[in-house]
Predict the structure.
Amino acid sequence: MKKTLIALAALGMAAGAAQASNVTIYGQLQPSYDFVEVKETVSNDQGTSRYDEDITTMSNNNSRIGFKGSEDLGNGLQAIFKLESKFDMVDGGGFVSARDTYLGLKGDFGTVMVGNIDSVYKSISAKYDSFSDTIGDYNSIMGQYLVYPGDADQRYPKTAKYISPCMNGVKLMANYTLVGAANHVNGEWGVGATYDNGPLNVLFAYEKISDNYIQELMGGGADNVQNPSAWKVGASYQIDDVTLKAIFEKGKVDGESLRNFYLGVDYKVNSSTTLMAHYMDANERTFNYDNGIDSTTVEGADAWSVGVDYKLSKRTSIQGIYTDFDISGYEVDSTGTTSGKMELSGFSVRLQHKF
């Protein structure tokens, strides 16, 4: 009996402490069954080879758990924090990597955060992606440089981020990232702005990444990569139960101009069911390697997805998604030319619960 009373008292004290410091525990569990077909054709001087495989797997889809909270400092000022981690519930890996993790201040001037944070370029258009964290995620094309490990939609360590208060529907944002422990210099910086007016949302973002950051990602290589940069504009508009979305982005890497665009539509059939679809396209781009001989040309890529989201409750839903992705190109090196095309299509069923 005494042990029971002590345990209850301890729980009560813990709950009281959490309430006093205004800490919220939250999360998102979203495993899926994926049925994927991969087709690849490769041609060179030795002939043509074909690869075809059907894959059935279960995906974690960035399931996560986090802690967030605030403290009132007086005079309209708050201390805020977030500690969020990816949680592997499919393979039993537990906490596997950090997501947005920061400490900051919030007041009439806006919000300032420091830590491991989504860049402005990434976060500003995240809500446009109805297929986020699924087989149809728009990051298969949008934000992709297709030249170095990573893409423009990144979460950066050693980052400071600012978000202004809303001023007549306008919000301004900026972030600045240091390279790493050895080189405390600029690694990436970005700015952005949004305008919200009823059913209309408009956005703009710009990002520039230094060669120092690219070389650190690639272990000191990529000397030919010249300060990649990208900008994008987007708009969404809601007409009754239909939401139309579009994003256009351009980038530049080593003199190559990159162009991607995205078109999406959501239709809310009723309070429980939403139909979703989007289409994306990327233009041709060529990249040369350090020796001046080797190069890769991506002739283009496109992807489309359709899906349905059905809410079982306010916090639990199930999605059915079909996606198709195609990319083709060729590579030139000292041994000759190799060309190829990859086609990926798949169907996914995802169960999602938010708490």
In short: Residues 1-11, 13-20 have pLDDT under 50 and may be disordered.
